[in-house]
Design a protein that fits this description.
Blueprint (H helix, E strand, L loop, with lengths): L2 E2 L2 H10 L5 H9 L3 E6 L9 E5 L15 E5 L5 E8 L2 E9 L14 E2 L1
Length: about 110
C-alpha cells in the first residue's frame, strides 16, 4: 500500500537532487507526488525504499542514466546512497554500506556529500 514518504526519505531525496540541471530539477518537482510503495527485502533490515510517482501529476525527467544521483555520507564514512528512476520517474532510494553492517536507518541529509 502506498503511503507518504517518511520525512527522512524525502529529506535524503531532496539532498541528493540538489543542483540546477534539468534532470535534478525535474526529479525534485516529483517529490510532492512521491509515495513509498515498499521496502527492500535484503533480509538485513536495509533502509532502502521503493517509491512511486503519480504520473498524471508531473512529467517525467529528461533522458538520463541510472543511478540518477549518488553520494557518500560524510558520517559514517563507509555508507552511500543512490536514487534510481524508471521511465523518467523516481523509483528507488537505496542505501548501501562497504562494511559488513547494513544501513538500517536513514542518515541525516546534512551528511550527504555529492
Amino acid at each position: 500500500m502506498a503511503e507518504p514518504l517518511p520525512l527522512d526519505v524525502a529529506a535524503t531525496l531532496n539532498a541528493l537532487l540538489t543542483g540546477s540541471g534539468q534532470v535534478s530539477s525535474a526529479l525534485r518537482a516529483q517529490l510532492p507526488y512521491d509515495r513509498a510503495v515498499g521496502r527492500y527485502g535484503c533480509g538485513y533490515g536495509c533502509a532502502t525504499v521503493d517509491v512511486a510517482v503519480d504520473h498524471t501529476a508531473v512529467p517525467p525527467a529528461p533522458a538520463h542514466g541510472n543511478p540518477a544521483a549518488d553520494a557518500w555520507y560524510a558520517e559514517p564514512e563507509d555508507a552511500g546512497v543512490m536514487v534510481f528512476t524508471k521511465d523518467g520517474y523516481l523509483s528507488l532510494l537505496e542505501t548501501y554500506s562497504t562494511s559488513s553492517e547494513p544501513i538500517s536507518t536513514w542518515r541525516e541529509p546534512r551528511f550527504v556529500e555529492r
